[in-house]
């Protein structure tokens, strides 16, 4: 064994040195050099750290550095995330986005410019004045449209979504709310009164019929039964015989 190689390595190292750390890694782990001050030591990791990308070879898997402006990368020339101040576009980190694209400060990417999109105008509303549709001759009517797609920072802004124009209606009087309510209340009371009157009349009629029926039954109970008329022939026959 080489004098600089230690036995019983820790942290995924296959071989290691007391001074240089890991010299080789166990299968599927990545070897990377980490700088500590003026010293570099080897470590073995399951995935490469930020600013590095992994490469696999038959004899060793190792982490290689991304370009200076990349925070993470797939290969050295294909970035997946840029460092602060750069915008990602097609795997590259740019200080300024190409023409036709805009910088998205939220994702730090160059994205397509999005213009505003709106729906068609709605039908005109009824002619109104101060929230009413009666009691005036000249008023206003409006129509609106909805925003379907809001624009991006450099996209075309949305137009006005509301339009108003003057209108003329045939003058008509507004029904007073209090009077209308009073009339409805009076009609309701009258209807309830008529229903109550009909109910009382029906109750009186039933009571009268019941009283007449009871009176007839009482009369039939108190009136004496009529006796049958005597048979004249039977009453006179003994008298004639005696004579």
From TrEMBL:
GO terms for cellular component: extracellular region. GO terms for molecular function: heparin binding; signaling receptor binding. It comes from the Eukaryota. Residues 116-170 form the Spondin-like TSP1 domain. CDD domains: FU (cd00064). Residues 11-110 form the R-spondin Fu-CRD domain. It is found in: Secreted. SMART domains: FU, TSP1. InterPro entries: Furin_repeat, Growth_fac_rcpt_cys_sf, R-spondin, Rspo_Fu-CRD_dom, TSP1_rpt, TSP1_rpt_sf, TSP1_spondin_dom. GO terms for biological process: positive regulation of non-canonical Wnt signaling pathway; Wnt signaling pathway. Its main location: secreted. Residues 175-219 have a biased composition (Basic and acidic residues). Keywords: Disulfide bond, Glycoprotein, Heparin-binding, Repeat, Secreted, Sensory transduction, Signal, Wnt signaling pathway. Residues 174-243 are annotated as: Disordered. Pfam families: Furin-like_2 (PF15913), TSP1_spondin (PF19028). Interacts with the extracellular domain of FZD8 and LRP6. It however does not form a ternary complex with FZD8 and LRP6. Interacts with WNT1. Binds heparin. Interacts with LGR4, LGR5 and LGR6. This is R-spondin-3. It comes from Emberiza fucata.
